[in-house]
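Q: Hi! First time asking for a complex rather than a single chain. Here are the components, and I think there are two in total. Is that enough to go on?
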Amino acid sequence: MIEFFRLANVFLRIGAMNEMAYRANFWIQTFESLLSMATALATIAIVFNQTDSLGGWQRAELISLLGVYFLVLGTINLVVSPSLGRFMEEVVDGRLDFTLTKPADAQLLVSISEFRIWKILDVILGLIVLSMGLLTKAEATSFASALVFGITLLAAGAIVYSFWIILATLAFWFIRIENITMIFWSMYTAGRWPVTIYPPWLKWILTLLVPVAFAVTVPAQALSGRLTFNTLMSAVLLAVALVFISRWFWKLGVKSYSGASA
Amino acid sequence: MLRYYLNLYPAFLRIAVLAQIQYRASGVIWMIGSIIEPVIFLVVWSRVARARGGEVGGYAENEFAAYYIVLMLVNHVTFTWIMHVFQSRIQFGQLSFQLMRPVHPIHEDLSDNVAYKIVQLTVMLPAVIILILIFQPKFNFEMWSLLLAVPAIILALAVRFTLEWTLALVAFWTTRVNAINQSYFAIIMFFSGRVAPMALLPVTIQSIASALPFYYMIAFPVELLLGKLTPAQALTNIVIQLGWLAFALMLLVSLWKVAVKQYSAVGN
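A: Yes, that's all I need. Here is the structure of the assembled complex.
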């Protein structure tokens, strides 16, 4: 664990130094993050101009859900997607050989090898909007639901990370895997709304095939106090199971890797 | 002149279709995004209609289904990806090769665009059929609106393609086109009827939208097909489309002249 923080700190510093070379990027990123948040909020405003509840969700609750959506999105774009994207390239051109010879756990190394630090803006903006939603809500959020929210958010992180590791590991067998992450991004936009509003077939796709339900809807349900005990348990169990499965799958992948260049 | 283009386009199209078939797997994956977006809004607005007692803004639940399924098709026909690729063309110098050719690069882009859409109809049409089976839309097609929809959709593509191709030229002056592109995509989302049918937007947005070209690129053909417009309104809108097309072409020609003059290749 100490090893993890030490390495993460190093890669974070490298990422920060890279970005400092292109300072204008900060303003562009700020603009882009604000714009996409504004578009999402405007969409909610247009829908709630016509109704005052969507599938049982109030406006304030949907704004909190949007906050969770950006929080998870920002975290994926901060480190998971850039690192694993780079890993997939390294499998293709053989640079992965160097990573595998390093004296640290290879899965850990490839998972944190690249930070896009300005994506932290999405995380911050997500937290702001999330609190905005909580503050405008009629009833106050209890300590218990805040605690459950923390648990579901941890589970969401573990599930999304494991899902990405499994996708990335496929690169050991299939070359053109970047395209598959496109599927994730397309489906992830469905998470701006609670998955409970979708028809069953779509709800199942968003729960089992692409873990949007556990990444966004479940934590938002915890915040609005509509999470059932069963859902909470399945989120935690799925998180634990996926962490082990992805670890096993990763090891299987490394075993079958034979190097592309060297 | 016309003869020249009549020889040129079939050749470009044949090459483009063959290339598209090579990359059909990635093509299918790109299509998922353009299918999921209308499905999301279809579901959201059907939910709103149900909460409001079956109808909102003149659309019943099954009319929202019809609206978004037709919109998905119209958007498929009219969308372009030129704004995503123009910057790399300049940055990596591919544009230099295109400029050496005796034809304007826009013709190859248009052929690629049409070829992609023809090839991807093999994904789009099954998707349409499945969505019709799932969502049970209510179509009120009429003969006259179906006939007028043909020029309306072609003009929608022409306006959108010309305008987005012109906007892509901004890449000649800056390498950071992403922020500009993203702003454009946000604007077109709201003003073209993709977030909500025009009738459901606040009145101020509706009046701004009528002064902008985006309604005529997507929502107008959709409303026409759904029988939301009178023949007179439809004809007026087609005239407005022609006006926007003329404007966009003029802008394209004058901007292109300036842009190419100050282009100096990078890379290659």
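A: Residues 105-135 of chain B form the longest helix (31 residues). Let me know if you'd like any chain examined more closely.
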